[in-house]
Design goal:
Length: about 230
């Protein structure tokens, strides 16, 4: 089990505003209440996240930034970094990788939380690219002294992340009890009002049912499932 306290740092890397809350919001709220310092990197601005033809992409991006900032406050995050890539516009390239390495070297997390890239067949391309590039950034790019020497000159020393938890995995092996933090997860999720198709009452029931499937694995009612990767130094 991953123990959290005031000495621990976590970096959450999310493709779109709202993915972290839906996949890992209960865990983030729980760790935050245990004193961990948790920062969030939001890779895209979610500017295609509406079917309302009266809202253009600039307006929806601005709205989603506000929603994400509000959710970050509910979760007690120390910082939210917006990379502002267009929705459906992420690529596995040098620029994006360097940005994630930079955030890892700045925040120096014990644990990185991000989305599992390896979902089979149908998956959102931004989810795939975020998960894949996050894992590459963790290992080996953030760790290696000779990767990004220009960052060293700025004082951003290499950093070894030892634990990664992937949400949205087809193959979860780690379950985190969210009985105490489920309502905070819902509070954070429902900050993303533009993305919610159901009332909180109906939505909560659906989410509760989803996480009730995993609770018994850790003797709780509700748990969030993850794939855990332990990285050797
Ligand atoms: Zn997403």
């Amino acid at each position: 089990m991953i123990q959290m306290d005031e000495s621990k740092k976590v970096l959450v890397i999310t493709p779109h505003p709202d993915d972290a809350e839906s996949g890992a919001g209960g865990t983030i709220a729980k760790w935050s209440s245990q004193g961990a310092n948790i920062a969030l990197v939001v890779c895209t601005n979610g500017n295609k996240g509406t079917s309302d033809r009266n809202i253009d992409s600039v307006k929806i991006a601005a709205l989603r930034k506000m929603e994400q900032s509000a959710a970050g406050e509910v979760l007690g995050l120390s910082k939210v970094v917006f990379l502002d890539y267009p929705d459906q516009g992420l690529e596995d390239n040098e620029k994006f990788r360097a940005q994630l390495v930079r955030e890892i070297r700045i925040h120096r997390p014990d644990v990185v939380l991000t989305i599992d890239p390896e979902r089979k067949w149908i998956r959102h391309r931004d989810h795939y690219v975020t998960g894949r590039v996050s894992l590459d950034a963790v290992f080996p790019y953030a760790r290696d002294y000779l990767a990004y020497p220009e960052m060293i000159a700025e004082g951003l020393e290499p950093h070894k992340v030892l634990d990664v938890l992937l949400w949205g995995s087809d193959d979860p092996d780690t379950f985190i009890d969210i009985d105490e933090s489920f309502e905070t997860k819902m509070d954070a999720l429902y900050c993303h009002e533009s993305q919610m198709s159901q009332s909180r009452e109906l939505g909560s029931e659906r989410w509760r049912n989803r996480f009730a499937e995993y609770g018994p694995k850790v003797n709780s009612i509700l748990a969030e499932p993850f794939k855990r990767l332990r990285i050797r130094g």
